[in-house]
Amino acid sequence: MTERLRVGLVVNPLAGLGGSRGFKGSDGEHLRELVRREGAEPRAATRAARALAPLVSAEIDFFTWGGEMGATVLSGLALPATSLGEPGEGLSDAEDTRRAAAAIADVVDLLVFVGGDGTARDVLDAVGEDFPVLGVPAGVKMHSAVFAVSPEAAGDLLLQLARGGLVGLRRQEVRDIDEDAFREGRVRTRFYGEMAVPGEGRFLQHTKVSGREDQGLVAADIAAWLVEQVVPGTLYLVGPGSTTAAFMHELGLTPTLLGVDAVCDGHLLASDADETALLRLLGEHPGPARMLVTAIGGQGHIFGRGNQQLSPAVIRAVGLDCITLVAAKSKILALEGRPLLADSNDPALDRALAGLWPVTTGYDDEILYRVGRPQ
To answer: Which ranges of the chain does DSSP label H, i.e. alpha helix?
Structure first.
């Protein structure tokens, strides 16, 4: 059975508490206690509820942290959720956020956090730059680009993901302001890093009509981008298909359209390689390896149809974190919301592959799309 979308929720209960009182944030413990004593209304829970309300009937499994850090909001909306831990005694702090985010990210496809720039920094510290996250704006300071424009926009985006819609994926900046300088009238922000954030893609309106997309041009765009990302010393296993073949052509190499090729530093190491040859190459190669895979056939299979050379042993040797999925948007749209499929003949591996994946769909263009198992 195809897995449901797994979404994590972390709420910073104190986010935004200082706004109505004229404070320039709520990062300091003494300031947060003062805000609480003066009776400022918490707004994070309200904004979280606004984002999640449209998802009551969506096919989503929620994972969260106890009490005001998420469980209370989900319970109030009658959204079933699994709580993976509890905050410490008293007011929650940055360590609570980091601990919750790290634990929840281990079991979900996407982490939703509710807060401001300080919360975004804590989430970045916990999950890194590659894990998909989405911020629901609730803080006093909002200089980072990892937040949806409103709680409702975040909810609409999550609904699209649950329904198998095409949702873009972009690297967005995490910034925070120096609160002490801000209180003295000086605006000074600092760049802390980037995170992978889903967002509404402008392409949705002009690629809905099937056949408008030129497959050859899209494949060339994807190939040009992939070649720019090639890391020296990396062994690339290139699966079958016209989109992956374009990558080989961009490198000046002749692909095996229906087979698997192995490439490193612009040299073709193996053509039409079988499982044994691939495992031997992986065992002998001193550096990292990556795998380029596209959907094979009309059912959206990424493994188990036409590329059995990429066996469970080969996939595990490369590593799930080192698989790059590529496809034209028109191919994804043709699935009509159905997930891409992993049917490797190893149920445990197929379960590990299931979830939200970034799919390269053009030059510097990615979407988030679900991978599931055949029903």
So the answer is: 29-37, 44-52, 71-76, 94-105, 117-127, 151-162, 179-183, 215-228, 242-250, 275-284, 312-318, 329-333, 347-353
Q: Is residue 209 part of a domain?
A: no
Q: What's the structural domain count of the chain? A: 2
Cβ neighbour number for residue 180 with a 10 Å cutoff: 13
The answer to whether residues 24 and 117 touch, using CB atoms and an 8 Å cutoff, is no
230, two tokens:
């090639």
CATH of the domain at 133: 3.40.50.10330
Give CA–CA dist 238/263, Å, rounded. 8
- Token reading at 328: 């034209």
- Kindly state whether residues 326 and 225 are assigned to the same domain: yes
Task: Tell me if 115 sits within 8 A of 144, measured CB to CB.
Answer: no
Are 219 and 178 in the same domain?
no
Q: Which two tokens stand for residue 99?
A: 């601990």
At 289, list the tokens.
């390896």
Same domain, 188 and 229: no
Q: What is the dihedral of CA 336, 340, 341, 344, to 10 degrees?
A: 160
Helices (H) and strands (E) in the chain, counts: 13, 16
The answer to whether 270 touches 262, Cβ cutoff 8 Å, is yes
**Cβ-proximal residues to 361 (8 Å cutoff; 6+ apart), any chain:** 218, 222, 326, 327, 328, 329, 332, 367
In order along the chain (375 residues), what is the average pLDDT of each group of 10 residues?
Answer: 82 72 50 54 84 92 95 95 89 90 96 92 95 88 81 90 87 76 58 87 34 72 94 96 92 91 96 95 96 82 90 96 93 86 91 93 91 80
For 318, the domain range is 215-372
pTM (2 decimals)?
Answer: 0.75
Of 200, 232, 250, which closes a domain? Answer: 200
- Taking the CB of residue 274, how many other CB atoms lie within 10 A of it? 14
